[in-house]
Amino acid sequence: MTSLGDSRARAILGLHLSGTFCASMTAPFIPFYIVQELGHPPWQISIYSALGILLTVGFNRSFAARLDNGHRFAPLVGLSIAGYVIALVSVLLWPSYGTLITVCVLGFSLSSSSLSTMYSFGRISAERYGFDIPSFNAWLRAMTSLGWMMGPALAFFVAGQWGPDRVFVAALAAASVWAVLWRTAMPADARSEVATKPGEDESDTNRILWLAVTACLLFSTAHVLCSSALPLFYVREAGLPGFAPGLSFTIKTAAEIVIILTTPVLLRFISPLTGLILSGGLGLSAFLVLSQVSGLAGMIVGAALEGTYYGLFAGVSLTFVQNLANGRMARANALYVNSLFIGALVAGPSVGVIAQFASFQTAILAACAPMVLALIVLVVTSRMQIPARFGSSEKQKAG
């Protein structure tokens, strides 16, 4: 069944987009706010970021355990919305670094946990309503990318036009839309099946799940190493004009969304594991091309290639990890999302260190290292005895 042909599917996608949009308005803006508005040194961003990621990882695990024990989805997403609103109100009333690393980081971390919760809700809804699972997963990932394409741009536009505080006011307005969609799109009694404990004969599948999650972590590390270094590489080292980073991001995200939405067709012919290996190869090519950019034409080609490899990764990785869940879908989604956060946590500080002692170009080339490791992990995974129900793309399509 085509996902968008059902009003319930559109409502779920709208709910997910609104939550992602809210998160993307504040997450990249807070570091700017700490330095530019509050006047603190840049190293204090690391404290806030580390606390945020560690809290989000913890909340993801806690929420996943509850969902796999049959807890309802709606209260957890409602808690995420409440955390987001409390964080915004707190920084508006008491704008200080102390507020950010206490109340705000706690509230924003709670709101970030809605990502893995929505992936679990989307999968359960696809199974119950008869949606095409790879297609619906692709649309969920596309909404994630779309939210991150719009949110930061709006936040910095508002800050430039009306001041930093207005960003938090605009985010409150966006949160009200998120809350309305939550009330209308998520059934109050929706819950996942109580998870069954995997038996000893399923230990191989559990090992493959951890290998898949490790590969996702390495993909995330490589992606953040490259994407974090690119803006300053373009302007400082490649000599491109100031608009180049924004143009590159737009091209990359547009290509990413297109590729994500085409992956369900690809999965009719290859397995998700093969798709991940192909994505890794394209990623290595993207890093090599981007590191040698010296003009706008090369930047456009590199950005399109970057969006292609990451779109392919995003489009197939969620389905692959979910299909190794062993009846614990929320746990699998939490592990998947946590791998992306931890990869970003590892890569973020690494960019500054590499650039300090070498260059931003070197940081881009350094992204090849985790990508090669990811490919090694995937090749090892391909040589393991994968259970039959996970090896066929047609079976994955059917759920």
Core attributes:
399 residues; mainly alpha; Growth Hormone, Chain: A; 82% helix; disordered C terminus
Structure notes:
The radius of gyration is 20 Å and the shape is globular. It contains 17 helices and no strands. It has helices at 7-26, 29-37, 43-68, 73-93, 97-112, 114-129, 133-162, 164-185, 203-237, 244-266, 272-291, 296-322, 329-357, 360-366, 368-382, 388-391, 393-398. The relative contact order is 0.14. With 399 residues, the chain is mostly helical. Mean pLDDT is 87; it is low at 388-399. Helix 7 (133-162) runs antiparallel to helix 8, helix 9 runs antiparallel to helix 12 and helix 10 (244-266) packs parallel to helix 12 (296-322).
What value does the average pLDDT take?
87
- What CATH architecture of the largest domain do you see? Up-down Bundle
* Relative strand content: under 5%
CATH class of the largest domain: Mainly Alpha
Write down how many β-strands occur, each being a DSSP E stretch of 2 or more residues.
0
Gyration radius, rounded? 20 Å
The helix count comes to 17
* N/C terminus separation: 12 Å
How helical, in percent, are the residues?
A: over 70%
* Secondary-structure-derived class: mainly alpha
Write the H/E string, N to C: HHHHHHHHHHHHHHHHH
The main sheet comes to: none
Which helices and strands appear, and what pairs or packs with what?
Layout: H1 7-26, H2 29-37, H3 43-68, H4 73-93, H5 97-112, H6 114-129, H7 133-162, H8 164-185, H9 203-237, H10 244-266, H11 272-291, H12 296-322, H13 329-357, H14 360-366, H15 368-382, H16 388-391, H17 393-398
